Amino acid sequence: MALEIRSATCDYAAGSAMASRALEAVSLTVECGDLVVVLGPTGSGKTTLLRAAAGIVPLTSGSVEADGAPVMDPASARGSVGLLFQRPEAQFFALTVEDDCAFGPRNLGRSEADARADADAALSSVGLDPAEFGPREPWSLSGGEARRVALAGVLAMRPRYLLLDEPTAGLDAVGCDAVRDVVDAVRASAGVLVVTHDPERFLPRASAVLVLSHGAVAFRGTVSEFLGALPGLVAAGLAEAPDVPRALLLAAAKGARLSGELTLDTSAAARMLAAACSGTDGGAR
Question: Which of 36, 182, 206, 262 could tie 227 with a disulfide, CB 3.0–4.6 Å?
Answer without folding.
Answer: 262
